[in-house]
Amino acid sequence: MVHIGADQTVVTAEEFDREPTFAELDAIAYEMPVIQAEVELLDAQIIALDRTPNEVDARRIRRARRRVLAARRTLANTAATQVPGVSA
User: Fold this and answer.
1) Number of H helices, E strands in the chain
2) Tens of pLDDT along 39-86?
């Protein structure tokens, strides 16, 4: 009888198969205001898709876009002065 199973190497943790490092978690926490603002924008856009958009929906999307831009601006301004995990 011939064995037809695949020959596999020893299973080890690959680069993509690991937990995030502390530096990666710090970077995520640093960008969290932008991530939250983008989620709020996406929520507002999804709400507008479910029905005919009215003035309230347009206002909600406009405010969410402004929050995203403000969060990105704040992140860009602070990134110019300090980067987490990198010492000057």
Assistant:
1) 2, 0
2) 999 999 999 998 888 999 999 999 999 999 999 999 999 877 765 555
Identify residue 40 by its one-letter amino acid code: E
Confidence (pTM): 0.68
Rounded to a whole number of angstroms, the distance between the first and last alpha carbons of the chain is 65
How far from 61 is each of 40, 58, 72, CA to CA, in Å?
9, 5, 16
pLDDT band at 6 (very low <50, low <70, confident <90, very high): low
How far apart CA 72 and CA 34 sit, in angstroms, is: 6
Instruction: List all residues 6 or more positions away from 88 whose beta carbon is below 8 Å from its beta carbon.
Output: 82
Contact 13, 30 (CB under 8 A): no
Q: Ramachandran region of residue 5, left (φ > 0), alpha (ψ -120 to 50) or beta? A: beta
d(CA 23, CA 87): 12
